[in-house]
Amino acid sequence: MSAQPVERTSTPVLELRDLAVHFGGVRAVDGVSMKLMPGLIYGIIGPNGSGKSTLLGAITRLTRMTRGELLFDGASYAHVPPSRLARLRVARTFQMVRLLPDLNVRANIQIGADSRTTSDDRTGSRPSWFERLRGPAVSPAVVDAIRRTRLGGFESYYPSELSYGTQRRVEVARALAMDPRLLLLDEPTAGMNQSERAEISGLLRDLRDEGLTQLLVEHDVQMMMDTCDYVFAMNSGQLIAEGEPGEVVRNPAVQEAYLGRKWGRDA
Amino acid sequence: MMDFYDSNLVLIQATCTGLILALSIQVPLRMGVFSFAGAGSYGIGAYLAAILVIEQEVSAFVAIGAAMLATAVIGLLLGLLIFKLNGLYLAMATVAFDLIIGVITINGGETTGGSTGLYGVITDFTMGQMFALTVIVLALVALSEVGRTGRRVDAVRDDPELALSMGISLRRYRLTAFVVSGALGGLAGAMNVLVRSAIGPLDIGFGLIVLGLTMIIVGGSRSWKGAVIGAIIFTWLPDILTAIGEWQELVYGIIVALAAVFLPRGIYGVLVDLNKWLRRRRRERRDPPPAVAAEQAGDIDPKPGDVREFALNEETVP
Ligand SMILES: Nc1ncnc2c1ncn2[C@@H]1O[C@H](COP(=O)(O)OP(=O)(O)OP(=O)(O)O)[C@@H](O)[C@H]1O
Ligand SMILES: [Mg+2]
């Protein structure tokens, strides 16, 4: 595992320039710049409230940004409406599990694949209005996502019937069913046990080996060291360190950000 | 059978128009749009069809088509105006729209017949045609509840932000809700005036909102089947209740209140839950859930995203 490869040949999949999100006086994200090169797993660590989720919100255009520039494949998308991002094949999971209660596991995952069956699919013939209305019964992407997240057997379960860890896997499967080029994961293994975490970590690395670029927010440092190629550390909305995972974790500023916070809380 | 049909013709007709009125409120509601504009569209559709028949002597289908087209366009314009409003504010705006339509019909002079309304709306519209239209509408609405569209409508209602991240344009779905609601309201109103041959301001008041809403709250707000159940109950119940005379309104009110409190998803919702429960029981008896055992064996992370985790894990840093 080496440090971030300098942009030799390819443009970054995602680039942020001086991105800021302010909520009134709260500077949740305050001048973050980063480049994500294709086919690597990037991690973001940082104490609670350091702005990690807000950053993902801004990248996915769900949260209004105060200033800065967003580029996907080198093209600005800072003014593209959030619903268009699925077409760029940007997929995400949320920190709080967000499954639709009235749909079973298969249908919840199918929603991800639905975003790929729109009319702008250049492959094959244009679907009829009826096909577009109904969509396919089960897309291959869904079958694949279910297999990869080991959800086989759960297809007809409803979210309320699943454990928290399994619900999280459905979230990941739904994002995978979008056949993403960039996958953003907000604490995908929170609430999972060690073996489930290892499984997810393995899955993310497999996806990376297939060329999927990922940005992973996690608190579990061991998992981040095992999974990521490159890590950013945030505190109070700003990047305080970046580099190879082991290096970043040993960085005094990073340790202080976490420990200072902890003591401040206990005091 | 024929006797029943003949003696209850009016109620059968009212069931069809009531059902479509209920759908005109249910369809937007299913997309999370609290619009009661369907009631106003009902008024527009009824008056427009009546005027076209009386003054232009158009056929029933032309009158219905024109009414639906007009109410769909008005629905779109109304939608463009207010679709960004949320919840209660949007509901209030659509109620205001309904009331304005009422005011216009009373003050429309000879065109709308003032407080007496319009009568003598005679066409060749038959019961068979009415049934056919109702069935077509039901089929189309049913289609919107399944497959890709059904899933997307669920997402738009239950989690708009998630819907956006799944590539769903909220704007498009919400505007569609207004258009469909308008067309359905217009259809219900036009059909009603064609079978009843008269329409007046009293037929299109606030009562329409209450009627449509009652049907879907008691019947079930998430499916056309709920609207059917509600339309049947609340078209036939008042007729049955006339037997108990002055207590009628009280019993009616109690039924609605009980349903709202105890059946939040209506009668159809109860059937759905029952079905889910039965399926789960059957499944659990056949084979236990695949990974529950494994999950129970492992240690579940106590609290997602706890800072202390970092400090504890520090020893693992090489
Ligand atoms: N919608 C909002 N309005 C106002 N303040 C917000 C909003 N969303 C987040 N914040 C604030 O922005 C800051 C960053 O929050 P954010 O959720 O991005 O942190 P985080 O790094 O994801 O934390 P955690 O590890 O707890 O998930 C916090 O101070 C939070 O209170
Ligand atoms: Mg967060």
UniProtKB/TrEMBL annotation, chain A:
GO terms for molecular function: ATP binding. It holds the Pfam family ABC_tran. The keyword Nucleotide-binding applies. Residues 14-261 form the ABC transporter domain. Keywords: ATP-binding, Nucleotide-binding, Transport. The keyword Coiled coil does not apply. This is ABC transporter ATP-binding protein.
UniProtKB/TrEMBL annotation, chain B:
InterPro entries: ABC_transp_permease, LivM-like. The chain crosses the membrane at residues 6-25, 32-54, 60-81, 88-106, 118-143, 175-195, 201-219, 226-244, 250-274. It holds the Pfam family BPD_transp_2. Residues 283-306 are annotated as: Disordered. Keywords: Cell membrane, Membrane, Transmembrane, Transmembrane helix. It comes from the Bacteria. It is a multi-pass membrane protein. It is found in: Cell membrane. This is Branched-chain amino acid ABC transporter permease.
